[in-house]
Design goal:
Blueprint: E1 4-6, H1 7-13, H2 15-21, E2 30-34, E3 40-47, H3 52-55, E4 56-57, H4 62-67, E5 88-89, H5 97-101, E6 105-112, H6 121-130, H7 144-149, E7 178-180, H8 190-202, H9 204-216, E8 223-225, H10 230-245, H11 249-261, E9 265-273, H12 281-308, E10 311-317, E11 337-342, E12 350-352, E13 373-374, H13 375-387, H14 391-398
Parallel strand pairs: 3-9, 3-10, 6-12, 6-13
Antiparallel strand pairs: 1-8, 2-7, 2-9, 4-5, 6-11, 10-11
Helix pairs in contact: 11-12, 13-14
Signal peptide: 1-33
Pfam family, one: DUF1501
Protein name: DUF1501 domain-containing protein
Length: 412
């Protein structure tokens, strides 16, 4: 009797097949690494420079009304987005208010990386992911999350997922990590089918793994047979890939991240694009913020209560944006910005900031929010609390040359 494998069991037990067949480039990969302990850390890179003054509006500062009017002002009737009488979430983030009320949402304002003045997305993202103060070590370097892994005794990695091309530089380095892409187009051409058959024929280990996957299948519903089942298997994968592409990419990344973090993985990082709001920001930024809120809520749902309680999610961006609105109804590349944090491991329900004020004399170069603390210090204290890494190692290895300063108490 032919052994059978249902759709769900096949896709969960034979990710290696996807690695062999994937051909499409990966724009935003998800990277994972397993590590000991119960803490989980998810780092979301917001590529394009999020406007922290719009995402988290300091309406209690008298200077804010002078800088931001019309659609960028705070509607006092939208009290659902008010946080503490001084700061208010953008209405597009209002869906996160239950997390705020539960103490599982926090923000850190007026922070930045050491990057200054040139305001290049490429340079800014390079330094954000490298975690260094400058380019003195060259651009081809490891990322700060990868350096963290080298300090975790007994850390291990997930089985490799190489669906698509590209990587998160934040996890590049000597410590091996697993990679997976939700955006690879698995529509299989006749050439891909031929390749799959050749792999099955010429790689006994691969064929044996596939046989084992079929043998482990429970055989219920929508099953395919091992013997002569190659084309049926490919058709099944095509159908599922088409269905997956109809869902939002960020939600698929969050769902997959949650799945892995419920198992051996302890660290996940992925990126969300769409934060470069030079014009019509009142139309483009709400869309990006809604995607971010949905992604965070998907992580919460996917992780479930016990795992969520050990998790910190942090969203970071390469720089903030100008304090004033430009002539196109947008904002230009700036300096100081905001980090958004979520998770059951947080001591949330608060905005952490050494607020510099928004008077023109208080602005950086009279144009940007003045950063008052290095973003890396907050990241360092998160890793110290989640993984028990010493401050000296964080300042020496993960963020070389950084003085983390006092503990802001971000974690319970």
């Amino acid at each position: 009797m032919a052994q059978t494998l249902n759709r769900r069991a096949f896709l969960s037990r034979s990710a290696l097949l996807g690695c062999s067949l994937a051909a499409s480039p990966l724009v935003t990969p998800v990277s994972f690494a397993a590590a000991p302990g119960d803490g989980r850390l998810v780092v979301i890179v917001l590529r394009g420079g999020m406007d922290g003054l719009d995402a988290l509006r300091p309406y209690g500062d008298p200077g804010y009304a002078a800088l931001r009017k019309g659609p960028f002002g705070v509607d006092r009737q939208a009290e659902v987005a008010d946080l503490d009488g001084y700061f208010a979430l953008h209405p597009a983030l209002a869906g996160l208010m239950p997390l705020w009320s539960a103490g599982q949402l926090a923000a850190v304002h007026a922070v930045s990386t050491p990057y200054r003045d040139k305001r290049s997305h490429f340079d800014g993202q390079d330094l954000l992911e490298a975690g260094t103060a400058d380019f003195s070590g060259g651009r081809s370097r490891d990322g700060w999350l990868n350096r963290l892994l080298t300090l975790l005794p007994g850390s291990d990695v997930e089985t490799a997922y190489a669906i698509g091309r590209g990587s998160m530089a934040i996890l590049d380095g000597q410590a091996p990590v697993s990679r997976w892409s939700p955006d690879s187009d698995l529509a299989l051409s006749p050439q891909a089918l031929t390749l799959a058959r050749l792999v099955m024929q010429d790689d006994p280990a691969f064929a044996a793994a596939m046989e084992q996957a079929f043998a482990l299948a429970d055989g219920d519903g929508d099953a395919i047979a091992v013997e002569g089942g190659m084309r049926e298997m490919m058709t099944m994968m095509n159908d599922d890939a088409a269905a997956a592409r109809s869902a939002a990419g960020e939600i698929r990344m969050a769902d997959f991240a949650a799945q892995r973090l419920r198992g051996d993985a302890r660290i996940a990082s992925f990126s969300i694009n769409g934060w470069d709001t030079h014009e019509a920001q009142d139309r483009s930024l709400p869309r990006a913020l809604s995607r971010l809120a949905e992604t965070i809520l998907a992580l919460q749902k996917g992780l479930g209560g016990p795992i969520w309680k050990t998790t910190a999610v942090v969203a970071v961006t390469e720089f903030g944006r100008t304090a004033r609105i430009n002539g196109s109804g947008g904002t230009d590349h700036g300096t100081g910005g905001m980090m958004l944090l979520a998770g059951g491991a947080l001591r949330g329900g608060r905005v952490v900031a050494d607020w510099p004020g928004l008077d023109e004399s208080a602005l950086y170069e009279r144009r940007d929010l003045m950063p008052t603390r290095d973003m890396r210090a907050h990241l360092g204290w998160l890793m110290h609390g989640l993984f028990g890494v010493s401050r000296s190692d964080l300042e020496r290895v993960v963020f070389p040359g950084l003085d983390m300063g006092g503990d802001p108490g971000l974690l319970l």
